[in-house]
Amino acid sequence: MEMSTNAASLTGYHREDTFFASRKFMGGRPVYHLDMPISQLTAGVDAPPVDEVQEDNRIVKLERGKAFADYVNEKKEWASPSLLLWCPLDILKFEPRQEINEMVNDPSVILGVLSVPRSSKQSVKILDGQHRILGFHLWMQQLNKELQAAKLNYSEAKKLRDPIIEEAARVRVEKAEDNMARSENESIGIDILICSSAKEARQIFADIANNAKGMVKALAIGFDQTKVVNRITSILADEKAHPLLADRIDFNKDRVSGTSDYLLSAKTLADSIRCIAVGITGRISKAQERDWQDGTEGQGLLEYKTRQFFDALQNCFERDFSMEPKDMREKSLLGSGTIVRVLAGVWFELTSDMDSQGKKIKPRKTVKEATEFFAKLQPYMAIPIRSGNPWLTTGVFPSPERGQTVTAPGSRNQELKSLTVEITNWAINPSSFPFGK
Fold first, then answer.
1. Per-residue pLDDT tens for 154-187?
2. Axis crossing angle, helix 130-160 with helix 62-74, rounded to the nearest 10
3. Domain match, 251 and 269 both
4. Contact assessment for residue 51 and residue 36, using Cβ atoms and an 8 Å cutoff
5. 7: in domain
6. Which helix (H) or strand (E) holds 25?
7. CB of 36 within 8 A of CB of 185?
8. 172 and 67, same structural domain?
9. Neighbouring C-beta atoms of residue 431, cutoff 10 Å
10. Smallest Cα–Cα separation from 198: which of 57, 104, 316, 297?
11. Which residues share a beta bridge with 87?
12. Which of 26, 52, 129, 239 could, after both became Cys, cross-link 83 (CB 3.0–4.6 A)?
């Protein structure tokens, strides 16, 4: 019996996988570049072990992998640099394609076919991109689980002979299949670097880490507009700037100090907005992020509350904010971004009609009353703080007894929370106010 020349290729019997790839040299080592669908990546590269010491890389944390899986799942316009893998010598086979290379005519990059033996899968290891590869594996597990559940649900729905239920189940299957198609149609770049040993791979990883410049949080806030806090930061600092903040926010440093002409860093401003939203130690949940999407009433309300806070600062501490920022850092507590964050936390505790979980509550003070309390603090913001100053009773300031010039409180989370609680108590119980007695 003759086999048709159009018969399907039975790839399951192949001993190797082949890819169109390029070969170049970096640091004297050969590097192969190819592009691979996410579904193929997770089939061909094992997920790194979680919370285990590895010979050639750092410990992998499940939370970071989950965060990347959520990012890819929720953001269809996701982006990622190429993954970097490594492999010992004589594992991969590369066959240049002369006809293509003659067209390219560049000896520094050779195009051809890269063969990866399936028996050598464990020999190809991750050099940089462990958490992204773990995230892709978690995402694929999620997609497969949902597709299986959707199809089982559809089978059961058809038995009920209810057109409405059956249609809902069919739509669920269609959505699950569309999501699975993303993993098959979308690819990521892969660079495979040839190393002689795990020791060499460790050194390469160290070289990458030592020479990479991470993005400061202030700059990331300006670039990443997917989060409500970042969007409002950009609005208040630039697009529709608050008078107190216009041209006074540094998006290139996480902390302003010394002779800087900036009042606050974008990071401190974003942290303060977060405090106004959910309190001094609160975190904005995924549900709240959805409720406060760009252009929604929720985002508009948070922006409005934040403007009220900065209005209060501007009106109550006019003398302090009229100084140049560099002079303010020498003469007023408000030159400390930590104090601004704490006052934002106090503002939340006094005026918010929601708790840190988003549940409705009755505000302790009106905006007018909270503003009047801030005005009570104004005469007592001078620095440096000397022995006997009532600010020292909060227990979060360094002691001037040791000869230290005290200009700001500590900035650890526990200190921020403690100071916020203390100042809030001064507002709620006027008899506890430690100044002017």
1. 999 999 989 999 999 999 999 999 999 999 999 9
2. 60
3. yes
4. no
5. no
6. strand 16-26
7. no
8. yes
9. 6
10. 57
11. 194
12. 129
Question: Which positions of the chain have pLDDT values less than 70?
Answer: 1-8, 56, 437
Side-chain-side CA neighbours of residue 153 (13 Å): 17
Residue with tokens 């190429």: 82
Instruction: Name the residue with tokens 């953001």.
Output: 75
Q: Is residue 410 part of a domain?
A: yes
R_g of the chain computed on alpha carbons: 29
Tell me, yes or no, whether 1 lies in a domain.
Answer: no
Contact 60, 130 (CB under 8 A): yes
Tell me, what's the pLDDT at 324? 95
Residue 245 near residue 237 (C-beta atoms within 8 A): yes
Q: Domain containing 346: what range?
A: 217-432
* 8 Å CB contact between 380 and 307: no
Predicted local distance difference test score (pLDDT) of residue 11:
82
3-state secondary structure of 350: helix
Amino acid sitting at position 143: L
How many Cβ atoms sit within 10 Å of the Cβ of residue 47? Answer: 18
**Residue 187 has what pLDDT?**
96
Q: Examine the domain organization and report whether 182 and 225 are in the same domain.
A: no
Number of structural domains, the chain?
A: 2
Strand order in the sheet with 187-194: 93-96, 110-117, 16-26, 29-37, 187-194, 83-87, 125-128
